[in-house]
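Q: Is it fine to ask for two folds in a single conversation?
A: Yes, each is treated on its own. Send the first.
Q: Here.
A: Result:
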Amino acid sequence: MRSRVITFPDADGLRPTPDRVRETLFNWLGQTLYGKTCLDLFAGSGALGLEAASRGAEHVLMVEKNPLVFRALRDNVKKLACVKIALRHQDALEFIIRDTTRYDVIFLDPPFESDYLPRLLGSLAKNLSENGVIYVESAAELELVAPWQRLKSGRAGQVWYQLLQAI
């Protein structure tokens, strides 16, 4: 069987989650995500959402604003025949304002130079299921305010990664 090649166009700010960090994240979440609903905001390369789907997530919604990156993501999801993945070509902030779905896992990896994290963390608790978690990548360790608590965290080079839950 021939392996499938997944390619993505060069895009400003596209920073796929390093393999080592992704492995740690999915160790934190458990090896399987059967029955879970996941949201991948700022999907970029789609590495986190694709990994969640490959680990049995019931449904994964990926949101990506960049048109070039979105097209590549769409083409790759189609090539891989990922039927449990849905895509939205939309700004993450605009999407989340209107979204009322509750997710078990939200992947949040916005461009580091943006002000998205404080704005999103202020409103994402409404989108989490009862024991839902948010995985965040950032340029610095987050200073958390209510309702968030840090369950786990780590650092790889210039990337801080954290698993949060609303209390």
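Q: Second one now.
A: Result:
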Amino acid sequence: MIEELAKNLANLKKDFASAYDGNSQFQEVIPASSSELFPVHAEHLVLLHQFATDNPIYYNSYEKIIGSTSCIVYEGDINKYWLNSIQHGSSHAPFSPTWMMSAYVGSLIAQDLGYAQVVDIGSGDGRIAFCGRVVGMQSYSIEIDDMLTDLQDSLCSSLDFNPRCSDACAFDYSSLNLKHPVFFIGGLAQMGGISLASGVIEKISLISGLQKNSGFVFAGTLSKKYAADPKNHAGWGTLIEKSNLKILQTCSLPTAWTFHESDDTPYIFAQFEK
């Protein structure tokens, strides 16, 4: 079911991209209601729409039929948050969000793989941690930028996804008492993601008993404008091999930065070799 949901979301994005005639800097869609193509729990959809409605990065929304699916289109502008996110000396990747529905599908996959906690690294507005809570997982959000963590705090009225304002490479993960976590790494490998992921993996490797139970999710890219990794895997192959990780699953999902591209973002789910 999750694989079909991801496939249908990718097709929805293609239909939306070809039909969109607005000029918003950032745009995405969320199905208005559960349907055969998008059999999402009604209460989950309510929460996804609430997050988008309350989120100040969006300034407009409207209903639109895309393909055969009734959707709400959300238009936004992330410029001030993007600019603020790059000012920190130890910031590894600027804020650029995945789609809410992609965050939701990614959380479903993590849950299906057996993980109990989501830790959203370089979390931006916290949407992945939020979606982890929506599907019933324990969630934590680690974000270095205070403007973005303040934004997250304002979005915690319905579900607390535990925002932390901290450098993810210096954070004390033992303080979270994690048992079986999955770490979503924010940022492409070629856009600071390698440094961010390496720092987090090193921290997790030092916590007794946690290494063998931890997983990681990497956002890759197939774009020709980025240098290819010699080990492939959408930019993450060398790090995956160096860190003794094995790939469990890869799923392509829409993101803000692939809206005008034919290929979506491959999310690579991996865990330590046991």
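Q: Anything structural to flag on that second result?
A: Two points. The longest strand covers residues 58-66. The longest helix spans residues 2-19.
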